[in-house]
Design a protein that fits this description.
Blueprint lengths: L6 E6 L3 H12 L4 E7 L2 H10 L4 E4 L8 H11 L4 E6 L4 H10 L3 E4 L4 H12 L33 H11 L4 H8 L3 H15 L4 H10 L4
Parallel strand pairs: 1-2, 1-3, 3-4, 4-5
Helix pairs in contact: 2-3, 6-8, 6-9, 7-8, 8-9
């Protein structure tokens, strides 16, 4: 999508005060346009399927069809839809279940509104989002067929590990290039090799897997 038009957002949450208040605030932003609301999973799926937004803010605990179930249904029909869970539940099991069903990110409801707006815009525009408000567990773990945690040799070089540590610190490719006194293209090559070796597709997954394997 283009940065010139507002990001379209759909809010699914069964708490009317939170949903309406969030909707009004987001709608007041020039960069965001609310295209729909729902207080249950069934209505959310129907509305989103008929008129897909750029980003969905999805609560987990809703009547009828839960947020997790709604994500599962939506992911089958709209594989490219950006779905961000916005929930009071922050335990590991909730986060991993939501991500395994296809959520793109998981954010707690006590997140600062300005930070939530940044997260929404980053996801909508396919920008890397390293916000501290995105839960570190928000990752779809790629487990080996034998069910183990996959702690095999990672084969990362010392330079790649240093770059990975920089990524974990939230630094951009340009900043990392300046730190290592190399070109940004060289850093991009290192990043792609890191992704391949760790079998991940983005920076957030790379950091999470690296921490799980005690690489960083």
């Amino acid at each position: 999508m283009s940065e010139e038009r507002p990001v379209t957002v759909f809010i699914a949450d069964d708490h009317p005060i939170l949903r309406i208040g969030l909707s009004m605030y987001l709608e007041s932003q020039k960069s965001i346009r609310i295209v729909g609301e729902a207080d249950n999973g069934f209505d959310a799926v129907n509305a989103i399927t008929q008129n897909p937004p750029d980003v969905v803010l999805m609560d987990i605990d809703m009547p009828g069809l839960s947020g997790i179930e709604a994500i599962r249904v939506l992911r089958k029909t709209l594989p490219d839809l950006k779905i961000i869970v916005l929930s009071t539940y922050t335990k590991k099991d909730y986060v991993q279940e939501a991500m395994s069903e296809g959520a793109n990110g998981y954010v707690a409801k006590n997140t600062k509104i300005d930070e939530l707006i940044k997260i929404i815009e980053d996801f909508a525009l396919d920008r890397e989002c390293m916000s501290p408000y995105l839960l570190n567990l928000a990752i779809k773990w790629r487990r080996p067929a034998d069910g183990s945690d996959g702690d095999a040799e990672h084969n990362l070089t010392r330079t790649e590990i240093r770059v990975l540590k920089n990524i974990a610190e939230g630094k951009t490719n340009n900043e990392i290039a300046q730190i290592h006194f190399v070109s940004i293209e060289t850093i991009k090559t290192h990043v792609q090799r890191i992704f391949k070796k760790l079998e991940v597709s983005n920076r957030m997954e790379a950091v999470a897997v690296a921490r799980k394997k005690n690489i960083i």
